[in-house]
Amino acid sequence: MRPRFPLATHVSPTDRRLSALVRHLGDSSASSMESQNPNQTISASSTAAFNGDSVFGNIVRAPEDPILGVTVAYNKDPSPTKLNLGVGAYRTEEGKPLVLNVVRRAEQLIVNDRSRVKEYLPIIGLTDFNKLSAKLIFGTDSPAIQENRVTTVQCLSGTGSLRVGAEFLARHYHQRLIYIPQPTWGNHPKIFTVAGLSVKTYRYYDPKTRGLNFQGLLEDLSSAPSGAIVLLHACAHNPTGVDPTIEQWKQIRQLMRSKGLLPFFDSAYQGFASGSLDADAQPVRMFVADGGECLAAQSYAKNMGLYGERVGALSIVCKTEDVASRVESQLKLVIRPMYSSPPIHGASIVATILKDKDMYNEWTVELKAMADRIISMRQQLFDALRARGTPGDWSHIIKQIGMFTFTGLNTEQVAFMTKEYHIYMTSDGRISMAGLSSRTVPLLADAIHAAATRVV
Amino acid sequence: MASRTAISRGILRRSSTFGVRSVASWWKNVDPAPKDPILGVTEAFLADPSPDKVNVGVGAYRDDNGKPVVLECVREAESKIAGNLNMEYLPMGGSMKMVEETLKLAYGENSDLIKEKRIAAVQALSGTGACRLFADFQKRFHPDSQIYIPVPTWANHHNIWRDAQVPQRTFHYYHPESKGLDFASLMDDVKNAPSGSFFLLHACAHNPTGVDPSEEQWREISYQFKVNGHFAFFDMAYQGFASGDPERDAKSIRIFLEDGHLIGCAQSYAKNMGLYGQRVGCLSVLCEDETQAVVVKSQLQQIARPMYSNPPVHGALIVSTILSDPDLKNLWLKEVKVMADRIIGMRTALRENIEKLGSSLSWEHITNQIGMFCYSGLTPEQVDRLTNEFHIYLTRNGRISMAGVTTGNVGYLANAIHEVSQSA
């Protein structure tokens, strides 16, 4: 007797699957019945139906990134006088983002060159870009470069360069401990921790002087175990804007070399701090000149305005050419399972500019203009606060360097300025000078004055 | 006061006696890393001076002259973009416009899942970056889980989940004797894997074998996944490239979606838009509801932040410009079909050429397999002969990138394959 199956008017996907299985697995009589009457199906029992819960159902929402979250909040604010002094992206006098003329020119050349293709870059990136980036930071006549002791790999801006370097250290270096300055860019500790390093801090900023706590820095580095890694901001310290003097750098170098501490430079503002690419690279070059080893992460986000293109480089200065070559091969093993190879567009722009004498010069002029505008904003803000008789010593505004000023305002004062004046900054009181213009300086000065006098 | 200066003077006195040049390198114990098996092939090819050399190694598309191709739709999009927009940071999750268009490709143009905002999605660094974000995410939130990976698979899959510290297991996939799918063993492995296991599936055009399950087989796999409560992670690197029709190539994913699976998916524009070096892709995770999607997305962003902060803008702009413009999108669809058709044509030509030489072996797998790669069945030794005697470059697993085959070299390639395979 042939089995009879219930006729179903609605055929769910589940039912179709089961029917398919029956056809595969069932006996020949069932199969021939199926093929004769396609409307006959087997209904799924409720336990076979899939109402699956998500395997990620227990996850909680991650907190907003403290820095990028500032812009999110700013964007939501409807006030016409709102001011964004959060993220460190350069703005013109008109408050607009800036694409450098030389960058536009380079981009047009690239786009109009029909012979260019979009093939994969090598794992370590664009060769020209790597060579030119090394020369930019270490100097064109650097003996380390001439002796082929430097390996440079293209990475995703400063973040990517730091992460690749940190992963390499966690795998191949005998010391897992890295010292970072107190305070530092919010993303630094995350990068190093997730790469597998342990993070400690060394004293850096002195809230009393709003300058460098040099004694504290030397003491903390002196007590670091031999071989520990030390993160150094090459110039324009983020978030404080406080840099060691050249004399102080000399002492830092001597101390670090005597203790066998490994320098890891983060160079995100070369050229942006003083307006001079060479001057801003002095600390890094000083360390390389003594023949020792170090790491350096470079970013073109700010100094070439290439933020979203994610252009950067990691260089590792080694003792010998052979070591540099082996190190490079290991860097590839870090990169390949992360993103295979870096993005081509931004690096092509940089290489185009750096290898052309005219374009390079044009870049230095535009870079100096950005740095000068920021220096001028510092002066204007300082003058405005003095004119208002705002209580306190505000000279740190003109002593600090680079994109950021650590105002010294506390979290309550910051919250007050956001609420009453719609001025957005990170809660540590860091303001991006690049977000200021001659037009908005008075507003900021008023807000700081109000915070300094009404909120303590 | 006095004691503090005495301390610093003491530090400096000690340090000045140390010469740095006497210190040995910190890295002298670093071993040279092995060359990447896939990318190393192109390096070797470039170094070969032979005029007859053929590169069928890396999976990058070539036209019939063996030249890389920039799609017209990409050129047009690029000239629209260049000079018009700034280069500000994208949000951590990337270009939302690009992500939205990308989800439509995988999940369907009018997908309710997209309308209901149930998909957590972020722009990623091409397929590699998308897989890595997911692997890290899996490790963070299912630390005891493993990943089941097909045998064989793209070599870098192993590296990705290893670096994410997710233990790996394998499942049967390729059947060497038939050069097709080992469906029975695959189903056994799926059934026997502990409930709730994570599986990596190639949505279409399996790399390196070119062997895909049929639609019916996908339905059965999906059903068994439901029975076992497994998690399906699709790596879709070749949508449009396999059959020439992106909708058709997404069939496996659509089947799983119909069956109610909450999938994860990595998408890449490297091949189907020729944007290789731009590193454009997308990672998506389908959630129960909008609230959960927001949560999951926030966590994916937390993984991206200490890796690269935010993804590159240029490639994403190209993609969103093309996909949101009906004319450019149509142009793209045409160009994808041209690429896929050329490859299908080369498969036929290669098979016919070898058969014409009187080979006693079966070469029907060349036309049965689909996508960029053909798993030739050649042994590593035979591959070495192809390289050393004929200057033909391919990976040692016998994987031939059909994109590197042209009407100009197909005869030479067929002859060489016939030569080395006769003495099997």
From TrEMBL, chain A:
Note: In eukaryotes there are cytoplasmic, mitochondrial and chloroplastic isozymes.
Keywords, alphabetical: Aminotransferase, Pyridoxal phosphate, Transferase
UniProt entry tagged with the keyword Metal-binding: no
Polar residues bias (residue ranges): 28-44
Residue ranges annotated for the Aminotransferase class I/classII large domain, each copy included: 81-448
Principal EC category: transferase
CDD domains: AAT_like
Superkingdom classification of source: Eukaryota
Protein name: Aspartate aminotransferase
EC number per UniProt: 2.6.1.1
Transmembrane segments: none
Residues covered by region (Disordered): 25-44
Cofactor requirement: pyridoxal 5'-phosphate
Reaction it catalyzes: L-aspartate + 2-oxoglutarate = oxaloacetate + L-glutamate
Record carries keyword NAD: no
TrEMBL record, chain B:
GO biological process, one term: amino acid metabolic process
Catalytic activity: L-aspartate + 2-oxoglutarate = oxaloacetate + L-glutamate
The enzyme's E.C. designation: 2.6.1.1
Cofactor(s) listed: pyridoxal 5'-phosphate
Keywords from the UniProt entry: Aminotransferase, Pyridoxal phosphate, Transferase
Domain Aminotransferase class I/classII large, first and last residues per copy: 52-417
PROSITE patterns xrefs: AA_TRANSFER_CLASS_1
Domain of life: Eukaryota
Entry GO CC: mitochondrion
MF-aspect GO terms: L-aspartate:2-oxoglutarate aminotransferase activity; pyridoxal phosphate binding
Subunit comment: Homodimer.
NCBIfam families: PRK09257.1
Entry similarity comment: Belongs to the class-I pyridoxal-phosphate-dependent aminotransferase family.
Note: In eukaryotes there are cytoplasmic, mitochondrial and chloroplastic isozymes.
Name recorded for this polypeptide: Aspartate aminotransferase
